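**User:**
Make up any protein.

**Assistant:**
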Amino acid sequence: MELTDLSEFKLIPDVSEKLKGFGIVKVFEEGAIILSEHAYVNAIPIVLSGNIKVTRSDEENREILLYYIKPGESCIMSFLAGLHHDQSKIKATVEEHTELLLVPIDKVSLLINEYPTWLDYIFRLHHKRFEELLEVVNAVAFKKMDERLLDFLHVKFKLTNTQTLHITHEQVANELGTARVVISRLLKKLEDDGIVKLGRNKISLV
C-alpha cells in the first residue's frame, strides 16, 4: 500500500518504504478504541484512511474532544508516551471505517536517528496538535456553548464530508464536555434558525 497521504510532510521515498516494512496495516470499524488512557504505547498509528477521535476524561469520566487524526497524520501523544515509556494520557477512538499503519515504537526511534525528514514530520505534527489544543483551551475559556457547538458541527460535517451526522445529543454533549439537556436545547434553537434539521439520532445540515 502506497503511503501517498504522507506526501504533505515531504517524506522521502525511503522513509515511506521503511514505514511499510516495519509496520502492519490493520482495519478498524467505528467505535473501536485504538488507545486507552493509562495504557502503555507499543505502536504508533498512522492513519491511511478514515479518522480517529482523541479525547481526555476527568475523574468523573466526563470526556472532552481534543482533536481528530486524519489521513497522513498520527497521534503526537502516542509518540511522546511511547518514546518515554509512559502511560497514555488520552483515548483514541475510531470514528468510521479506518485503515491504520501500526509502527512499533522501537522502529520509530530508529527512524528518528536515521532520517531527519521523519523527525521533521514529528515536529510538524507536534506544532499542528499544539495549535489545535490551544483552540480547545480558547473555546472552553472564551466561547459560549452555542459557538462551540456550531464550530463542532462544522468540523464534523467537513471531516465526514457529508450533510448528515449520525450522532446522538448525548455523544455531542460528551465530546463538548457538557450536559445532554444543554446540547438538546441549543440544537433545537439551531433547527428553529434553519441551520440544521434534527432527526432520530442524526443532525442534518440545511
In short: The two ends are 38 Å apart (CA to CA).
